[in-house]
Structures are given as C-alpha cells and as structure tokens.
TetR family transcriptional regulator
Amino acid sequence: MVSRAGLSQEAVVDAALELVDQDGLDALTLAAVANRTGVATPSLYKHVRNLAALRQLIALRVLDELTERLGAAAMGRSEEDAIRALMLAYRQYAAERPHRYAALPQKPQPDAALAAAGGRLVEVFLAVLRGYGLTDSAAIHATRCVRAAVHGFVALEVAGGFGLPEKLDVTYENLIDMVSGGLRTGTFT
Amino acid sequence: MVSRAGLSQEAVVDAALELVDQDGLDALTLAAVANRTGVATPSLYKHVRNLAALRQLIALRVLDELTERLGAAAMGRSEEDAIRALMLAYRQYAAERPHRYAALPQKPQPDAALAAAGGRLVEVFLAVLRGYGLTDSAAIHATRCVRAAVHGFVALEVAGGFGLPEKLDVTYENLIDMVSGGLRTGTFT
DNA sequence: GCTAGAAAGCTAATGCAGTTAGCTGGAGTT
DNA sequence: AACTCCAGCTAACTGCATTAGCTTTCTAGC
C-alpha cells in the first residue's frame, strides 16, 4: 500500500503541529519535521509543496479546530449566554495551544481553502448573533466587533502584551460584559 | 568625524524601517539593509548586535511612534471625545504603515526597553481613562479592554482577516461606540 | 605635525535552512 | 516475471546569519 515510512500530507501536518506546540512557531522547519517523521528533508516535498504551503495547511487545521470548538461551545445556548461561551472557548483554545494560535497567518493569504475556513469561523459568530435579531449588514458589523475584541485580547495575551498575568481572567470578564452590553444596547449600522 | 559610510545604529534602523515599509517584514534581512546602506553585511554588526536585536530596535521605534501619535490625538480632549480620537489615530497609524504595525512583536520579549515603551503606550490610554473616573484597578482593566478591541480590529484588518474592505470604516465606528458605551455604563472590577 | 589606538569597514569562511535534480528500490499491477 | 509508479534518498546549489581576523581611517594626545 504505502512504500516506506508510510508518510502522507496529513501525517506531515500532524508532525508539524506537534513541533509547533512543543517548540513554538519559529521551530517549524522542514529539517525538524523531517527529523520528527524519520525521513530526509527533501522527502517532505513529496507530500507538501514547500514550507509556505505547510504553513498554510497548519493555519487551515488551526482555524478548523477553533471553529469546531466554538461551535460546540455555542451549541444549545443563545444571546448573552452564547456570546459568553463563545468568548470563553476562544480564549481557552489560545491558552491551551498558544503556539497554534500564533500560527494563524498575520498577513493576507490568497489561499482559497484558508478563506473558506475563515468563512466557517465567521459563520459561527453570525449564528450566535442572529439571536440578537441583527439584520444582515448589522450582523456583519457586530461579528467583526466581537471578533476584534476577542482576537485582540487573546493576541495580546499570547504575545505577553499585558503586564500582570494574575488578573487577566477578571479583565476578560469585563471584556465579555463590554461586548455583550454593546450587542444588547448598541446600534449597528 | 565618522569613518567611511557614516553609519550609526540610528541610520541602520532608519534603513531597516524604509525596507519594512516598502517590502514588508519578511524582506527585512541584514543583506538587504546592508545593500541599502551601501555597506557589506558583516559591517552591520558594528552597529547592531544581530538580526533579533535589530527587530527589537524596530519594534521600539514603532511603539514610540505610535505612542506619540496617540498622545497628540488625545491631547486637549476628554472622555468619549478622547477615546474616539485615540481609536481613530490608532487605526490610522496602522493604515498608513501596515508593515510597521506588523513589526510589533508577536511573542513575549524579555527586552527592558521594549517593556518600557509598552508602558508608555499604556500610559496614554490610562490618561484618557482617568476622565471616566475609574480607580486604579478598574482603569487597568478598562485600558486592557480598549487596547484589545483596537488592536484586534487593526490586526485583523492589516492581516486581511475581514472579507469586504468597503464598510470597514462603518464597522470601526460601531466598535468605537461599543467601547465608549462600555466605558460609560460598564462596571469594571 | 605625528603617532597610537579605537572604531568602522572589508574579505573569507562556516553552518544551516529551503529547494531542485536525478537516482533507486520496493509495492502493486499485468 | 516484467513493468510501472512513487516514496524516499543523496548530491548539490542558494541565500542568509554569523564569526574571525585583517585593513583602513578618524581622533586624541603628545
């Protein structure tokens, strides 16, 4: 069935994710992945176009993983309850897998699969916001605001952008209040 | 006065910033900086410890530049007026210099100068929030929330994380409303 | 003015990572 | 049993960061 090491694109991405989890994003090198999969570096090119492509595959995985988590968290809840669950789950994912979260692309990627995954993520937010009775355009603006708040907090937290780490839970509760308050009382254009 | 090319750490950072502005963060390479300053690559080590150090110097510059802009924008304003000006100036900086904004560190940096610069940035936010009569701890939480919202939006925008770029101005106005509404009515612990 | 020393620059060389080219051997097929 | 395909390999090249050691030039002090 499979020749030698039984490698596949999936297995390569798996190994790359382990590497990222353990040693951070900067440690993601084809040599390291090859080493971890017990293969010579050039052999990886049989499964992955190049390093950039591997990074995109990773981003795709992370995005889908996050989307799944958020969907599960929001399921069966509505309105503020759902928003709160969504935001908590989001932060929790980044806390559990900070390096994976950091692996999300920081620059515009022209990748179609990635864009689709981003769309799926947005869909989860939109689904939750429908409970607020927001019309199409308003829902989009509201979604962006929620995403901005959540991503901003998490990104700053992961990057060590906040001083004291003790009270971050409290800050996040405040942020949740701010967001859900804004959704309740705010006027979205 | 100065030996040959009249280089200095400042000049190296200047050249590096030009490079980043023009070609993006990935284009920041010692070879490229050397080329731009008319010097052989190893000569740069006379002014900068290594590439990582250069990156930190760049981050420092950007952080201070941003802080200065925000301070100027908030000056003479108070409460919602000031918050609005602050948020608009923040986004405008990132829009003008997206690559510089992206050059801010994404990972915890143990650099003291960088931490100090971060502290100065936070000070501007805190100064504005004092107008809301927030006590110490509450002011810190509120500041973090504002920063999270602003940074999240800007980071997503710079990264192309939003679909349609047309209505982003509108979204940002909504975000400003959400934040200032939260500051007005919210209870910060 | 002259000379010593520090500073700034250079060339040479090393190591590592990504990538390409071309070979090879085993698995599945006919 | 011969054929074909493909995963994996070795060899080789490139670009970049970094170090070592030499040369030149400016400055300071005599």
Notes: The mean pLDDT of chain A is 94. Residues 1-4, 29-31, 41-42, 45, 50-51 of chain A lie near DNA strand C (CB under 10 Å from a C1'). Chain A touches chain B through 48 residues (CB under 8 Å). Helices of chain A lie at 9-23, 30-37, 51-74, 79-96, 98-102, 112-130, 136-158, 168-185.
